[in-house]
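Subject: Sanity check before I submit

Could someone independently write out the structure tokens for this chain? I want to compare against mine line by line before I put it in a report. The sequence has 333 residues.
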Amino acid sequence: MEEQEPGQWKRMVIDASAGAIAGGISRTVTSPLDVIKIRFQVQLEPTTSWALLNGHISRPSKYTGMFQATKDIFREEGLWGFWRGNVPALLMVMPYSAIQFTVLHKLKTFAAGSSKAENHINLSAYLSYVSGALAGCAATVGSYPFDLLRTILASQGEPKVYPTMRSAFVDIVSTRGLRGLYAGLSPTLVEIIPYAGLQFGTYDTFKRWTMDWNRIRSSNTSSTGADNNLSSFQLFVCGLAAGTCAKLVCHPLDVVKKRFQIEGLQRHPKYGARVEHRAYRNMSDALSRIVQAEGWAGLYKGIVPSTVKAAPAGAVTFVAYEYASDWLESILT
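---
Independent answer below. Compare away.
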């Protein structure tokens, strides 16, 4: 007997709820790596000890390596320093993931002519990429102000310039206006198109390859009937690979986005020079200025914690979504 497809509104509730749960779990688990990544990205001074050895530095750097940054943050801010900005991050990532997975499912349903996930896996890599990119754009626009606040709170360190999310919000609106809540949106959208497209496109591709491998293995062992269901470990590995591929390609755009988000805002001197107001005219100008002032390495500041974070974050998000979606579907249908 064929399983009944959930109704349109019920399907949206399942996708939105599962997406929010998956995003919340993933963000909380990987927050320490995200805080370290942001500290590197917004630091104008070099973030490696190579610059110190070669003399390519005009002022001391606060953070010069992942291990050193971890020790400094823990010593100066305690364990909770690694979850700085986590509340606005959750307020950002939960609606972001909810919107992203809901729009993604709607687009895949339209392309496949069915709302069943098993039919979505047969979509071409191109359609998976486009669906992921469009879903990422919709989610970014819907949750961006919280992403901005998360970046500002996570980058400030101790002593705090903004003690609360409200104080940061008030200062941004008073100094930049309401448009200030969307500072850096353009490079974010430019980043999210390839990032979300690659993440979802490669995830679906890796899932198809794994399912094919399972069928081949099943036929070689003379097993009766090939099982299309992937194990938790297989889903985790597919998500791990997808998150890593997407982050390695798109990291320079993430650095530019962070610079736009904090330009002109207050920053304690011990964390290095601040990004001055209107330091960059546009995204291409930001890219050229960063390369000119900081070298090509400037575009890859925070790449180690970023990749280390992106891999498990993608894996946890996809696994949590698959299980939350199945669980909610069993309850609601």
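---
OP: Matches mine. For the report I'm noting this point. Residues 185-220 form the longest helix (36 residues).
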